Amino acid sequence: MVTNAEVLRYLTSLDFPASKGDIVAEAERAGAPQDVLRALRAMPPVDYGNIDEVARSAHTNPNPEVSPADLAARARDRKHQRVARHLRQS
Fold it and tell me: In which residue ranges is the amino acid composition biased (Basic residues) (predicted)?
């Protein structure tokens, strides 16, 4: 999974507001790799007002130190999940 920094590196010359198509086309012109293009193509088809909106909408890993496998392991770890008392199994 790519990071926000990797995605935004290929959009430095983009003028906003921009549509999803404009964003993907700019990344292609800038020579973005397939992982970056895939993350941009997965965004909703709306107009984006600035680079921060693109960073929030792109399917990226905002924290590269935490891998998707680590996130999945945390989700499976039940000792850190908070469950209401009436829903707990005794």
Answer: 76-90
